[in-house]
Specification:
The protein is built from 14 helices and 21 strands. By secondary structure, it is of the alpha/beta class. The protein has two domains: 173 residues, Flavin prenyltransferase-like (Rossmann fold), CATH 3.40.50.1950; 202 residues, CoaB-like (Rossmann fold), CATH 3.40.50.10300. The strands form six sheets. An eight-stranded mixed sheet has the order 12-11-8-13-16-17-19-20, sandwiched between helices. Strand 9 and strand 10 form a beta hairpin. It is elongated. It binds cytidine-5'-triphosphate. The site of cytidine-5'-triphosphate has 15 residues, from helix 12 and strand 16.
């Protein structure tokens, strides 16, 4: 998202403190973030907080000494997105009726950027007909409104009125800032490890963190795809806006993938599936006793190979990952052929900066025609976009051919 600019407009509600976290999350996405506050917002959080988090001057007065007299026009026209969070009933009313009596409201009036409104207020205020009609009016005019969530409100009541969590607002913002080149496509992604139980307290698993698969699912949602994420146990939160199907064992993952594969345009298997599982599951905890103990393992299904062998002439693009510690290209290419894939993403998991548990990855893309594309070490979020770019191009080529 390098080079994109976002304005966070903070108005005077108790949820103003959550806007601080929102600014921090947006900054982490390499966005330029500027903050404008109404006078009442400064009673809840100081401009200094936002200045420190955004690294930019915060404007909270119409006739401020620093900057230029036309900042309110420049800001709204130079930025890509304005997020009003929290948006009070008063500010919503002003936007709906064209009132510009402070920096933020005049900035919104002059804006050419997309505008996302995140209302937050007492439930009765939110349900008030005037507020609802104002929001409807704004939506009709092309403003985007994010529904408040339900829950305990600061005023002691319960119901819709809470500002959505900053991470949810950030995800919506990222979607609005992303190209929607995957819209209309259904993509299934598998991620994380599988766990194969030995007894009620023990299992066999692997070091997959799920970060790569989750990054792909996040990027696909942002780019407009309909996404199904089939995931083994991880410590990660799935993005909002996707269908999340949690599983534990390889057998469960296989069942879930096969039940949901129909209509998928692209299937990306980033999961680290356990190749074997204990032959027997001990119903009770296995007690310590013997000096040595053997575990009899049996083979798990190879989900990707079965998808490959059963796809017939379907146009689904199948993408696998190859986790290797030696002979990377040779082994990855063998997997591409034996599982009948369109592309395999090879990564050397013996490196400290690539593969399991890291935030970066060093991958090579290998195609059916023997082409190998090497890309430099980069954040998993960027690798995710590249995987999706390649899968989309393969699909277009298949449809044309
Ligand atoms: N895979 C799968 N089902 C399995 C094993 C692997 O669907 N039982 C998929 C993975 O999700 C990945 C690809 O196959 O996309 C390759 O996985 P990897 O673990 O690298 O290779 P394996 O086929 O398991 O072979 P090996 O463990 O011998 O390297």
């Amino acid at each position: 998202m390098n080079g994109k600019e976002v304005i966070v407009g903070v108005t005077g509600g108790i949820a103003a403190y959550k806007a601080a976290e929102l600014v921090r999350l947006l900054k982490r996405e390499d966005l330029m973030v500027r903050v404008a506050m109404t006078k009442s917002a400064t009673r809840f959080v100081t401009p200094l907080t936002f200045e420190a988090l955004s690294g930019e001057r915060v404007i909270h007065r119409m006739f401020h000494r620093e900057g230029s007299a036309i900042d309110h026009i420049r800001w709204g026209q130079e930025s890509d997105l304005i997020i009003i969070a929290p948006a009070t009933a008063n500010f919503i009313g002003k936007m709906a009726h064209g009132i510009g009596d402070d920096f933020l409201s005049t900035c919104v009036l002059a804006a050419t950027a997309k505008i996302l409104i995140c209302p937050s207020m007492n439930v009765k205020m939110f349900e008030n007909r005037a507020v609802q009609e104002n929001l409807n009016l704004l939506e009709k005019r092309g403003f985007m409104v994010m529904d408040p969530t339900r829950g305990d409100l600061a005023c002691g009541t319960e119901g819709p009125g809470r500002l959505p969590e900053p991470a949810m607002i950030k995800e919506r913002a990222m979607m609005l800032l992303s190209r929607q080149d995957l819209s209309g496509l259904k993509i299934m992604i598998s991620a994380g490890p599988t766990v194969e139980p030995i007894d009620p307290v023990r299992y066999i698993s692997n070091r997959s963190s799920g970060k790569m698969g989750y990054a792909i699912s996040r990027a696909a949602v942002r780019r407009g795809a309909q996404v199904i994420l089939v995931s083994g146990p991880t410590g990660l939160n799935p993005s909002s806006g996707l269908t999340f199907l949690p599983v534990k064992t390889a057998e469960e993952m296989k069942r879930t993938v096969f039940e949901n594969r129909s209509g998928c345009d692209i299937i990306i298997k980033a999961a680290a599936v356990s190749d074997y599982r204990p032959r027997e599951y001990a119903g009770q905890k296995i007690k310590k006793g013997a000096e040595s103990l053997s575990l009899h393992l049996v083979k798990n299904p190879d989900i990707l190979a079965e998808l490959g062998s059963e796809r017939g002439d379907s146009s689904t693009i199948l993408v696998g990952f190859a986790a290797e510690t030696e002979d990377l290209l040779l082994n990855a290419e063998k997997k591409l052929r034996s599982k009948d894939l369109d592309m395999i993403v090879a990564n050397d998991v013996s490196r400290k900066d690539a593969g399991f548990e890291t935030d970066t990855n060093l991958v090579k893309f290998i195609y059916r025609d023997g082409r190998v594309e090497e890309v430099p070490l980069m954040a998993k979020d960027r690798v995710a976009d590249l995987v999706l770019d390649r899968a989309r191009a393969l699909r277009e080529a298949r449809l044309e051919g």
